[in-house]
UniProtKB/TrEMBL annotation:
The chain crosses the membrane at residues 51-68, 99-119, 149-167, 179-200, 212-234, 240-259, 266-286, 292-311. Coiled coil: none annotated. This is Uncharacterized protein. Keywords: Membrane, Transmembrane, Transmembrane helix.
Length: 338
């Protein structure tokens, strides 16, 4: 990969003209912008040094929690959180390392939240305090370091705390799985709406906001998908042709939604249910389990790879069906074939 300095050195050496260098830079810039919109990029690792730093940081955080925890368990967790914050000051703000940023932000949020476990006896109040502290910790960490996953961590803490508090305080919910599944689905809709809000702030997908949206979509996916499949009886063990048809229809709708918003998390989250349903139905036809699973996995894998190859053409077709008032909030499909 050639840098701007390499291109400029070629101009200085008389290998290419300044006009050619300008045209080359513009061409590369236009390709990068189109790719940024059409692909679901997110930063996970910038080099093996990220893994090295993460391993060393985890050793330091765990040892700090154990040593200081000899005085009091909560103090150990708070000391670990303080250590995670201090490491973040260097490895996130100074070095801008991707994987350590994710791990250190999660370590800080979780350590702060769990510090209340040993201070509160009542289970409901304990769960509420954990979710509250985790959300506050996530907010503080986001304000300082702007790590995209922190927003999803805080949102997930609030959602889980709310759902578990309802589960404990209202016994009738425990005996009504469809009602609790509906509550999870509604929470998922709220998280999905928040993810779409962040997506709409950067439809060109060139800033940190699109990374925030990515992690929120990853959080919303199981909250939306799993309750739907539970409510149609996929987990009940009594699978039939009706469940198979419903699962197929739902997965097609999920694929269309994924194409529309250019996010694949929903499809990945529902993949296990599709495999389970179709494998179970093939087993009823006296097909050996390993063979039925292999057949379903082969067909589904081939279909997903085919969709991946024609993802941009499929998106262009789907976006043509949307009204302009909706399409302006959705990332455009700029890539041409091939």
């Amino acid at each position: 990969m050639y840098s701007n300095e390499d291109i400029q050195s070629a101009v200085n050496a008389g290998i290419i003209t300044s006009q050619t260098a300008y045209a080359l830079r513009k061409h590369i810039e236009s390709r990068q912008k189109a790719s940024a919109v059409d692909e679901e990029h997110f930063r996970l690792i910038t080099g093996f040094n990220d893994i090295f730093v993460v391993i060393a940081s985890l050793l330091l955080l765990v040892s700090t929690e154990i040593i200081v925890g000899k005085l009091h368990d909560s103090l150990g967790l708070l000391a670990s959180a303080a250590m995670a914050w201090g490491l973040s000051e260097y490895f996130i703000r100074k070095r801008c390392m991707a994987l350590p940023a994710i791990i250190l932000s999660l370590a800080f949020v979780i350590s702060v939240g769990l510090s209340s476990v040993y201070l509160v006896q009542n289970l409901s109040i304990r769960l509420f305090s954990i979710s509250l502290l985790m959300s506050l910790a996530a907010w503080c960490h986001w304000r300082r370091f702007h790590v995209p996953i922190t927003v999803a961590a805080g949102t997930g803490a609030v959602a889980c705390g709310f759902l578990y508090t309802l589960w404990l305080e209202f016994p009738e919910i425990q005996n009504n799985i469809p009602l609790f599944s509906m509550l999870i689905f509604l929470i998922g809709l709220l998280v999905f709406s928040l993810a779409m809000y962040w997506d709409a702030l950067d439809i060109q997908r060139q800033t940190r906001r699109t990374d925030v949206a990515f992690w929120l979509h990853l959080l919303a996916a199981p909250l939306l998908v799993h309750p739907v499949f539970i409510m149609i009886g996929v987990t009940s063990g009594e699978l039939g042709l009706l469940q198979m048809v419903l699962v197929l229809i739902i997965y097609i709708l999920i694929a269309l939604l994924s194409l529309t918003i250019d996010r694949r998390a929903l499809m990945v989250s529902a993949l296990g249910y599709v495999l389970y349903v179709f494998t179970s139905l093939l087993n009823k036809t006296a097909v050996e389990f390993t063979k039925s699973f292999a057949v379903v996995a082969f067909v589904l894998g081939a279909a997903l790879l085919l969709l991946s190859v024609f993802w941009h053409q499929s998106r262009r077709w789907v976006l043509c069906l949307l009204p302009s008032s909706v399409a302006r909030y959705i990332p455009p499909c700029k890539r041409k074939w091939p």
